Amino acid sequence: MADVVSQDTRGTTYADITGLQPWVIEQLNQLKIHQPTPIQYHCIQPALEGRDVIGAAKTGSGKTLAFVIPILQQLSIDPYGIYALVLTPTRELAFQIADQFRGLGSPVSLRLTVIIGGLDRVAQGAELNRSPHVVVATPGRLADILETSPEFTLKRIKFLVLDEADRLMDGRFDTQLRTIWAALPEKRQTLLFSATVTDRLQRMKQLATSEVFLWQSTNKQATVQQLDERYALVNPIVKDATMIATVLQHTEEKPRGLILIFTNTCKSTQKERLSALARFKSSQVKVLIATDVASRGLDIPLVELVINHTIPNLPKNYIHRVGRTARAGRAGQAVSFITPHEIKILLAIEAETRQKMTELKMDEAVVRKIMKQVNVTRREQEIKLNQTDFDERRNINKRKRLIMEGRDPDEEEKKKQKRVKKLRKAERKERIQLIEELEKKKKKRQAGKGSHISEGVADEKIKEPKSPIK
């Protein structure tokens, strides 16, 4: 439990953190948060002192509150907007960070806005114009607004936070980050937090504008001790059925527990993702299927089982995935389904986490019993997906291209719908004509057949032989 409680934080409370104000401690107590985690205990005080901070600890160690607490306390002393900018790599994580700000920031009448792709850009621009205290954003949408709205400025921000900093700095967001850095003031306080430390840590350190406080968990094991890690060696043909059997067994044994299933691809729109996540958090649904987008930062206490339907190629991605359970001292289980060709990946993960997994044995009779139904259901859903256009990113890029070409995307969509409608009408007309022709041919054949029978009967009457009886 080194990332939740360590020797130097055992028995401590938030009151033991120098400089923390009483209202913050009281608000934490009301939220039933009484004991700081090591990263909170070590990083909050330097942040309150105005130092730049780099904190690294495994998932589930309370990194979010390590920057939320000092930002809210300093904001209460000198409130203005925009006071803090928090950058995060995923949309779902942005909403979760916002929830923690709102939960702790109610005594200071916090104004906050979330800026992410997939939502109305005009509405987001209007929210920014109202100068919220805190902006939580993904790099892409924020850079887009900065490039197209010269009146919007970030020159007065006091705090810059990079959550999941290793992923933000892995190269995929470099273009957007350059745009954002150019809009930031030179004098600011920078807080960087990450679960895994990469070679880019020194690059992160260079972003700091004052004396840097660096804290890193001393625990060598990359996953928490409360996590029960298992693997199931399966034939690809029965993988889905084995996974369903595992889900059914866990649901029967622990009906209140939530299950998070990771896979490589998951087709859905942004609104559908947010709706599914909200229902999962509130336990309206017990199982959520997600990609690695959900492997960073999501904190849902009731997640008791994480399943890797497809095991990730990179050990660090595995660490982030299984970190969605066994959080903040709770117990949890992670099950990874692997094929014989993926054993090398399993060994690489064990080497990185310094933890041997236990093999999970499933009842083959149960798997065989449900295999046919699972395969039929899977095929039905594949057909439905193939008939529906879920490619959101392609549609977004298409809209951008049309705008750059000087064409109205909405007008082009209307034209497309007219063409589709016209095409469907032509296809319907063609089907009707084809059916009518077939009906005519059928009637003609029946008429010809009846005529032939009548002629045969007439011939027989004409050629009727004479009776031998006179």
UniProtKB/TrEMBL annotation:
Biased composition annotated in UniProt, kind: Basic and acidic residues: 402-415, 458-470
UniProt cross-references to InterPro entries, sorted A to Z: DEAD/DEAH_box_helicase_dom (IPR011545), DEAD_box_RNA_helicase (IPR050079), Helicase_ATP-bd (IPR014001), Helicase_C-like (IPR001650), P-loop_NTPase (IPR027417), RNA-helicase_DEAD-box_CS (IPR000629)
GO molecular function, one term: hydrolase activity
Compositional bias per record (Basic residues), positions renumbered to this chain: 416-426
GO cellular component: cytosol
Taxonomic superkingdom: Eukaryota
UniProt-listed SMART domains: DEXDc, HELICc
One Pfam family here: DEAD
Chain ranges of the Helicase C-terminal domain: 226-368
Keyword tags: ATP-binding, Helicase, Hydrolase, Nucleotide-binding
Annotated region (Disordered), positions in chain: 396-426, 439-470
Residue intervals of the Helicase ATP-binding domain: 44-215
Family: Belongs to the DEAD box helicase family.
Protein name as catalogued: ATP-dependent RNA helicase DDX49-like
Gene name as annotated: Ddx49-L
